[in-house]
Batch of 2 targets.
Target 1
Amino acid sequence: MSLSDLSDEALLDAARRGSLESLETLVNRYEQSIYNLAMRLLRHEQDAEDVTQQTFLSLVENLDSFRGESSFRTWLYRIATFAAFKILRKRKGLETVSLDAATANDPEQEGPPPHPEYIADWRDTPEHLAQRQEVRQLLEEALAELDEKHRVVFLLRDVEGLSIEETAAALGLTPSNVKVRLLRARLQLREKLTRLLGDPARQLPPHRHT
């Protein structure tokens, strides 16, 4: 069995015992995903590279601190998300805080999910749309317009494939908060894309928010 066939936890155990090859395998397994996540959050190549480097530096420095309370992947994404939010807060001139504080929300401020203002049948199937380069570009632009706390939930759950529970653990949120933010993100993205890709001939008139 090659190293690439081993589980994350088996590779981590070997890395703790001094196996540089196991550590390198872990890095190779997640490096591109961590970079993609950071790039979509920060939209700046150098910042995304810095987050990726910092994530794996933190991994090396904290090999013995992982206790298996969540999956290794969840733990790694938590490190990367904190590093990205640190840069976002610095851009805004805000004091660096813990990831829990950076992603926490006031339930009263979150409010109910928005009602879509534009509803129309799409001119093509979602499967065909997803294969078009211009649609992928539109999705990236729509993602960039989301608030960071909704964007990161969408990225972890729908792009990186973490479960609701894993996403909650990575961000220090409750599963119910993750579900609310994910719904808001999906609705906002769908409305944005529907405005651009919907069939105007079959558009339904906007309705008032209630």
Target 2
Amino acid sequence: MKGMLWLIENPKLGLTEHIRQAADYYQKKYGAQPNQCLVNPTEIKPGLQLPGIEIKSSRSILPKHLLIGVEQPRTAETL
């Protein structure tokens, strides 16, 4: 995934709102709608969903951060 790292700064906002803000910023900066977000397992809650964005947990993402971007579909050429 090509993505952008986003710091979760405001503890008063929920994770969903942080993802929305990051998605809006990503859209404005890169001109593409993000479709995937990676979050540290300590940040994610069961059942968390956001239309159009697949949210996954990843230990490689630091706590209080998220990685948002565009995951390209895999084709036979990229495998």
